[in-house]
Amino acid sequence: MKFGLAVWATLVILAGSAAAQDTSVRTIPFDTISGGFRAIPVAVDNMKPATSDPISADDSLLMQYVVRVIQNDLDFYADFELIPLDPFYMETYELTELDIGGWQRLGADYVVKLDGSFPGANMRVTWRLYDTRSRREIADGHFDYHRQFWRLLAHDVANQVVQEMTGDPGIFRTKIAYIKKIGQAKELFMADYDGANEKQLTNNKSINVSPAFAPDAEHVYFTSYKGGSPQLYRVDVNTGEERKIGDFPGSVTAPSVSPDGKKIACVLSKDGDHEIYVLDLEGRIIKRVTRHPAIESSPTWSPDGRYIAYSSDRTGSPQIYISDADGIETRRLTFAGGYNDSPIWSHRGDRITFVSRTPRGRFDLASIDTSGYDYRIMTQLGTNENPHFSPDGKHIVFSSTRLSGGDIFTMDLSGRNQRRLTSEGNVTNPAWGPLPRR
Prior knowledge:
Layout: H1 2-26, E1 40-44, E2 48-49, H2 57-76, E3 80-82, H3 87-92, H4 100-105, E4 110-117, E5 122-131, E6 136-146, H5 150-166, E7 175-182, E8 185-192, E9 199-200, E10 208-213, E11 219-224, E12 231-236, E13 242-244, E14 252-257, E15 263-268, E16 275-280, E17 285-288, E18 296-301, E19 307-312, E20 319-324, E21 330-332, E22 340-345, E23 351-357, E24 363-369, E25 376-377, E26 384-389, E27 395-400, E28 407-412, E29 419-420, E30 427-432
């Protein structure tokens, strides 16, 4: 009973948060550059008990919130559009539940059916995915976790549905790191991709910026002023242990971990100019990438680790450049937009997203093909900064002042489906972590 009450209290808090998020994102007037994209209509039916054995009120509530998380996950996903249960339709036809044909009439091409049971302290969920047009089951599976891990169970059901329908791994267990202003300090935090389970990673009461996940998702690199000048640090996300990486005169900023996790590109000012360097994980210099009296900043690796994109004001205002990782060959990527900064390379390798000052004088997110063509503006409200891709390359997290002093938002790769992740008005610098290793 003690456990049941604890679960109940936790569910109420988390459910309230989820409900608030769901409502707020639907009332924000966002822009889109989606073109002819058509999302796949998917529905998630209410969960039913797997047996005729009676279940407690706590277990019934648990089933509802597992369904809610699965629905939120699939509604978030770039390829899908969630089809909700229509109470008017149910009332008109005096229905208490919907069969496969009913979901098709509501517009769903696919529907996820769920059964739940509670063996001992565990919750077991069996899921079945149906194609409503053929009326056939096309995939199924089950998960059996301790009840306290019900959110992970729900995320794993959604991840499996994504895997079956797209061939890509789901991202619903990933984390997002970000910076939150607390008094005069800026501390590093981390939360689930949907904003749940927030955790404070630093508490050094200094200025900490520019988080960057290591590929193992166990460490986050960042720049901190806690020792005076800005230097590179690493924090263990499980223990909170902080470690200084290298020690250089001047500043060490804008870390970017290579795709293989063995190198860090960053900006050093040890010789006066701000130049791009590559360090090993102990902070030793491997190579210098740029040699120019201009200010170079914001390095980002290509997915294969062969190239580094960065911003440079060598022509008078910041523009995006691409160099091979040795800095031998360099080309300018952007010409549209008078001020382009903070590039981030798509995980698919074909595009770079960055901050661009548009003709209206506002800082928006823009995207360009790595060939230098197809420059697109992706936002149209507030000041938008710090873009970062999800590990599947289909979503972007960024900070924006459109509704507050600064919060985190997400959107699809095309600019569709923009959502508010935080609502405290003091959050910036998001970085999306990798898929967890299983």
